[in-house]
């Protein structure tokens, strides 16, 4: 079946008793055993829950994997994947990545690592050491929107015996399927596009190899980071409209990116033509607080991938734990804003940005009032 069909039917036909189209929410911590030595397949919800199983099977099908695991957050999922490695195992990591991942690597796990531009295959190869065990990359980087050649990275990993871990949050299986390109592990913050409604926090891992999936499940169960049944149901509900939503996200983002590129107060627009994520740099840092204060329809809030459009200031929010010199080198400046474009009418969003960017603010000369929507 095509992916759109797979997503619509996520969790369907899982109620043999009553035939409910929506998978039941098995809000139970534990499950009764039929007899000594017998099990229904479920014993304790930390280890497995029927609602979570429905979600995990849907995610595995969507990404083309052998197994999926659902977690309490995207960071919990990534932490589980990184627990595959020991204190002497070196990682090559994309330099332009989510600030929370940087915080996890630098301030919590402390694994040996080298940050590189993973769009430069030669730089990646040069960073590999004898003790390197994996490459960690974002399918679309946050917030500079750079896109690496995943197939080439996977080929390099096969050549030297490394695992390739890909965070596919920004692209989703609708726009990229890293496992088909040779990746070993796919990571999602399911809070974002997969769930899509800003009403649940969740994460996921999907793997090509069933044995690796079993190993990761052992870690997940031991740590206790599995997703609850209510949250699993919410992500399942979101998956059903993922394909439709991604189409609208992209259409709106493309229109807004084109409009921003013509705006006299915008210096640079970062939009690779896929997903609903874009970043733009204004010419004067004093415009940042103005825009964040003046937006009316667009919401100044962290996170992304929901139906509502959100604007974020990475310098002070998502990437604040990065050293200033690293942020500046990567282009994560005090003039960069990140936009998660929702599924509203694009003209309404453009009109909101127009009024937020126009006018005088702290001495910024008004050059944009005639730009319009």
* Mean pLDDT reading: 95
Overall shape: it is globular
CATH level-3 fold name of the largest domain: Aspartate Aminotransferase, domain 2
Q: Looking across the biggest beta sheet, what order are the strands in?
A: 1-7-6-5-4-2-3
Strand content: 15-25%
**Distance N terminus to C terminus?**
41 Å
Count the E strands: 12
Radius of gyration: 22 Å
Helix proportion range = 25-40%
| Low-pLDDT segments, ≥5 res | 363-373
Q: List the total number of helices.
A: 13
- Domain count, please report it: 2
The level-1 CATH class of the largest domain: Alpha Beta
Structural class: alpha/beta
Structure keywords:
373 residues; Aspartate Aminotransferase, domain 2; Aspartate Aminotransferase, domain 1; 7-stranded mixed beta sheet; 12 strands; 15% strand
What this model shows, in words?
By secondary structure, the chain is of the alpha/beta class. It has 13 helices and twelve strands. Residues 363-373 have low confidence and may be disordered.
Write a concise synopsis of the structure shown:
This protein has 373 residues and is an alpha/beta fold.
